[in-house]
Amino acid sequence: MENKYLAYIGNWGMKPGSGDYGITACVYDPADGSLTATGSVLPEVHVGNVYIDQERKILYCVDEQMKHEDFHGLGGGGKLFAVKIENDGNLREINHTYSFAPLPSYVTIDSRRKYALLTNHSGGDPITVAEKDAEGNFHPVLHYSDASLVLYRLNEDGSVGPAIDIFKATGHGILPKQSMPHLHSVSESAEMKLFFVCDKGCNKVYSFKIQNDQLIKCDEYADQEGSAPRYGLVLEKQNLFLYNHEASTEVTILRFDENGSLSFVESVPLLPENSSDEKKESSDIKRSPDGKTFYNIIRGINIISVIRQNPQTNSFQVSQLVHFNATTFPGGGARGCAVSPDGKYLYVCVADDGDIHCFPINDDGTLRDEDHIQHMGHPANITFCAENIQ
Predict the structure, then answer these.
(1) pTM above 0.85, yes or no
(2) Predicted confidence pLDDT, tens digits, the chain (390 residues)
(3) 321-354 CB burial, b ≥16 within 10 A, e <16
(4) For residue 78, which of 41, 99, 242, 377 is within the disulfide window of CB 3.0 to 4.6 Å?
(5) Phi and psi dihedrals of 105, rounded to 5?
(6) How many helices (H) and strands (E) does the chain have?
(7) Phi/psi zone of residue 365: left (φ > 0), alpha (ψ -120 to 50 degrees), beta?
(8) Are 376 and 24 in contact (CB under 8 A)?
(9) Cβ burial 286-309 (10 Å sphere, 16+ → b, else e)
């Protein structure tokens, strides 16, 4: 049998109880970038993010929901799933557990495969509580669900064990949607054994390390108010953390050291200064397999910004802007993106449209202006099994 690459599409949406989400397993064709569905699992799960342990062939995904059936659909938050990738590429659930807060948004596994780390974005809908001040006067006070980073122990077989520590963020930003923290992603520096968390509610980036099964916060970087840091990438050899913003069309680069200290390096605009006043938000950012090119998705105006690093100055700059046709606000917009393991294609997922946009990649990392569209489910993210599977 010929070798084949496998891709896994996480289907996501805000419609409760529809039963048509879950994970779709696909075969990737390197000749034209097409994806052929071979099966699906977990149709009730709103798959907001996926991480694949390539060595153990285990897929971890979040169920990005506010309410859990164990709490009669009244609350309780989302879930974390461990799913086995079988020899034929199809999927089988191993186990699942609570996320311990609403809207789990991201999961990653540490390089030693000992822990899983999950961020909870949380909702933003408060409850009202009457509290008495020191003078005996009552005031209505708003309380919110946790926005948290959860640390789980992984079992030897890759199943998710108990939660062993939880960091709960506090504070707020200046935008109407920033009344509380919104932890949105977590990324690892395997060399430094550090983790970086983007908080789009408080406009911060945190660094963490794990000691004695506990999350230790090392540092925090306060970004521009209202910028909403969203997704990031670690550049290991340069000790850099690069991340985008949901409410600002730029990427920011921070330097980190072995202690987790964070310092500003530069911000890179993703659009020309005279760009339109239409609503626009960065959603996802990914890099090419060779690490030389970065692709940032801007929804609302449906632009892909292609970013390269100057080898002489090490500074970053946008080398190309490519438009794609998709639903824009207020109906929805693009969410996740991915580069095929062979570096031939960039994929952009638009859950509202049910479309996956595929762009061929040139040798220099730029995109050919050829938007090949496949209609499939509610695609919010796509993750490849990087090794060939028989």
Answers:
(1) yes
(2) 456 789 999 999 887 767 789 999 999 999 999 999 999 999 999 999 999 999 999 999 999 999 988 888 889 999 999 999 998 899 999 999 999 999 999 999 999 999 999 999 999 889 999 999 999 999 999 999 999 999 999 999 999 999 999 999 999 999 999 999 999 999 999 999 999 999 999 999 999 999 999 999 999 999 999 999 999 999 999 999 999 999 999 999 999 999 999 999 999 999 998 777 788 999 999 999 999 999 999 999 999 999 999 988 889 999 999 999 998 877 678 999 999 999 999 999 999 999 999 999 999 999 999 999 999 999 999 999 976 555
(3) bbebebbbeeebbbbbbbbbbeebbbbbbbbbbb
(4) 99
(5) -115, -15
(6) 0, 30
(7) left
(8) yes
(9) bbbeeeebbbbbbbbbbbbbbbbb
Contact present, 64 and 381 (Cβ < 8 Å):
no
> What's 155's DSSP letter?
P
Residue at 163: amino acid letter: A
The owner of tokens 């550049």 is 235
